[in-house]
Amino acid sequence: MSRDQLIGVALAVISILVIIVYGWILFFTEWSMLLLQLSAFIAVVGVFGILAWIGYTLATTPPPKPIEEIEKEIEEELKKLEAEQKQENSEKQ
User: Could you give the CA distance from residue 50 to residue 57 in angstroms, rounded to a whole number?
Assistant: First the structure.
């Protein structure tokens, strides 16, 4: 059995155990309300944590250059390359 298969089996077994324990706590113990509160809190933190990360990334990432500016830079580089090529050709002759 490969390492990936072992990890897959472990993940499946652990997931099934967590589902069984979660259901048991939820339906057969006095801790069900706390479990629901913790689950809701973790879900909210996860969703809004991701949204906060996206917002931070958008706020701190500089905007891209306009297309026109990129086109000008490419044209300038092409002109430089053409000039260098002409110079090399004239030196060879």
Answer: 11
Structure tokens at 5: 């298969």
State the Cα–Cα distance between residues 34 and 25, nearest whole angstrom: 10
pTM to 2 decimal places: 0.61
Alpha carbon distance 40, 29 (integer Å): 18
Tokens of 82: 């053409």
> What's the rounded Cα separation, in Å, for the pair 84 and 88?
6
Our CA angle for 35, 39, 45, nearest 5°, is 145
Name the token pair of 37.
């509160």
Q: What angle do CA 39, 44, 50 make, to 5 degrees?
A: 130
> Would you give per-residue pLDDT tens digits along the chain (93 residues)?
899 999 999 999 999 999 999 999 999 999 999 999 999 999 999 999 999 999 999 999 988 888 888 898 999 999 999 888 888 887 776
- At position 61, the amino acid (one-letter code) is T
